[in-house]
Amino acid sequence: MRNTEAQNLGKSAIYIDGSDGTEEIDSYTLEGTKCLIAFENNGKTYSCQ
Predict the structure, then answer these.
(1) What distance lies between CA 7 and its chain's CA centroid?
(2) Which residues pair with 15 in a beta bridge?
(3) CA distance 20 to 31
(4) CA-to-CA distance for 45 and 4, rounded, in angstroms?
(5) How far is it, in rounded angstroms, from Cα 5 to Cα 36?
(6) Per-residue pLDDT at 42 exceeds 50
(7) pLDDT tens across 9-38, in order?
(8) In terms of C-beta density within 10 A (0-12 exposed, 13-18 middle, 19 or more buried), how is residue 27 classed?
(9) What's the rounded Cα separation, in Å, for the pair 28 and 4?
(10) What local confidence, expressed as pLDDT, does residue 8 receive?
(11) What string of H, E and C letters represents the secondary structure of the chain?
């Protein structure tokens, strides 16, 4: 996983439908209060708060 912001995600994880999807993240960007996450497997970007 590579990040586009200076943030340490060492203690963070992304869960998708109850499964750890952290290793599938290609990149993320913080925009205001939202985090935009792009996944390797489909190239789509998802927004979360």
Answers:
(1) 12
(2) 20
(3) 23
(4) 13
(5) 11
(6) yes
(7) 556 788 878 888 888 889 989 999 998 999
(8) middle
(9) 6
(10) 53
(11) CCCCCCCCCCCCCCEECCEECHHHEEEEEEECCEEEEEECCCCCEEEEC
